[in-house]
């Protein structure tokens, strides 16, 4: 109460100037000054004196982070002058947007304003350098506010070192990404926007999503995952692009499935997707970005979407071969060499194959016994023709069930398991019974589109 009275008396005795820092500019693009002010204010010790402060857990289990709540005031001092910030919110036409309002005495404005804003910029830059955490952004439905993205921490463990892929192919992709990172002056000299686009195609379970995560970790880029079912129309898709940041990977998964099963509420057109990847707008706002599209097959995609300039690199994700299998065995089982490897290699050479996801599930279920895991993989590979689907499903069920039974005591007929008919075992059967054989590889893995 005393603090409020003191503030009221001070306001009565002085004349103030107010400066608003909105979250978005007049073009609905992110106002970078807003994010800098946000970082700066949340680093001030005076945030503890705010009337209402939010508490969050930090990266460490015992770390508590304070964040300023809406419509709260936080004070700061700079060069002997006292200023205040108000965390506000605008509501125009049913659309909400956040802002910060700087309250400064007119007598101090000319002396400190420019230096104070530069101080905020410097401190926020230092904070950003210390906080190198990547973010995964997801688009939300329209009408929830001007901000169309919500984010979570991006902590995906996939890297180019641990994904199952041909070594030569990985090196080609890494080289291509490195050239892109260093290519700003080159792209500017050519008069082209500094962006790169990739098409990842292959059946489910072949590692496309993990590869995207590895790309983001390699580039040290945030990920913007666009759910096209939540995009109202072509203009809305452009608006999402406007609100992305530099140094980001923009992802659209299962593009072919969306185009084949568009709902009545989703009116994004093929033309809209083409303009999203290659238009005047993307040329203006897509600088320093990587775009990635995933599909199960290229056959159902309009060739105009895939032309050079819109999609630069095509990467095929086939079913597992022996090289990928060895990577999986090393990652999942900690085995680099094994007496059964020669048998596995021979089966692969005869044309048999599984997806990386299927092999990975067998290895996870039998991770306590690498030999047993490899035997289950061998048996699954040996089942061929039409019988392979049903036989593999049964094999996966048995392999998973046996592994779990050994972990809890080795007896499936005990009270815990109920002779194999308990809900736990039924759920295991249901889980591993979902795995299916995927189509075999159809084309080369790496294809750089040329103008």
Structure description:
The chain has about 450 residues and is an alpha/beta fold. The protein has three domains: about 1-130, no CATH class; about 150-315, P-loop containing nucleotide triphosphate hydrolases (Rossmann fold), CATH 3.40.50.300; about 320-430, no CATH class. The protein has helices spanning about 1-15, 30-40, 105-130, 165-180, 185-190, 210-220, 235-240, 255-260, 270-275, 280-285, 305, 320-335, 340-350, 355-365, 370-380, 385-410, 425-430; strands at about 15-20, 55, 65-70, 75-80, 80-90, 95-105, 135-140, 150-155, 195-200, 220-225, 250, 290-295, 315, 445-450. It has an eight-stranded mixed sheet with strand order 8-7-10-11-12-9-13-14. A four-stranded antiparallel sheet has the order 1-6-5-4. Helix 12 (about 320-335) packs parallel to helix 14 and helix 16 runs antiparallel to helix 17. The radius of gyration is 28 Å and the shape is elongated.
